[in-house]
Design goal:
Helix content is 57%, strand content 9%. It is mostly helical and 188 residues long. It has one domain (33-138, 146-181). A hairpin with a 5-residue loop joins strand 1 and strand 2. Helix 2 crosses helix 3 (115-132). The longest helix is centred in the middle third of the chain and has 36 residues, at 75-110. It is globular and about 65 Å long.
Length: 188
């Protein structure tokens, strides 16, 4: 595609270990990696927004799940559900923005494309944000009648919604992490 992107051809001389000189043609573009990086950043921002929305829906389902059978489709119930989803998506973005930027930068630089690693990183990020922000109830409250569960329901919801975040992010952007730096291999 030499004419399409106004590639300039440059001649590169290489020496192999035997001392023979070989000549190869290399495509050099004025903004190839810069444009690829810009496109990748747009995909990452879109993936984070969609993953935050999916996380908010997962939080809403987790919180309102026990009452799901009583939801008849009333307008008020739908407003409560989508309001909870919006609050969950906003909290996800607010709590996890800086750790998320660090994790995305690491995944892009080391080309980490694993589905399992993305899901585990999403769950760990939200769990650490949940406990680190002070939203978690204290774990030292006990009752004489029954001991507290080893993992609270809120922590389970946070871990599951973090895994949903990681899965949705992987589906949109994570499976192509670092591929923008490779020449000749377009992101697929």
């Amino acid at each position: 595609m030499p004419g399409l992107f106004a590639w300039a051809a440059s001649l590169v001389r290489l020496c192999d270990p035997a001392g023979h000189i070989s000549v190869q043609w290399r495509d050099v573009s004025s903004g190839g990696l810069g444009v690829a990086l810009l496109g990748r950043l747009i995909v990452i921002v879109f993936a984070v927004m969609v993953a935050s929305l999916a996380t908010g829906v997962a939080i809403a389902i987790g919180v309102l799940g026990p009452q799901w059978h009583s939801m008849s489709g009333d307008v008020g119930e739908r407003v409560v559900f989508w309001g909870t989803a919006f609050i969950g998506a906003t909290a996800t973005g607010a709590i996890g923005l800086l750790p998320l930027a660090i994790l995305i930068a690491l995944a892009e630089s080391f080309k980490i494309r694993s589905l399992v690693i993305n899901a585990a990183a999403g769950a760990a990020m939200l769990l650490l944000g949940y406990y680190g922000s002070g939203l978690a109830p204290p774990s030292y409250e006990e009752s004489i009648d029954h001991p507290p569960p080893p993992v609270s329901r809120e922590a389970e919801i946070v871990a599951a919604s973090g895994a949903v975040f990681g899965l949705v992010y992987w589906l949109i952007a994570g499976r192509n992490a670092g591929r923008w730096r490779e020449r000749g291999n377009p992101s697929s």
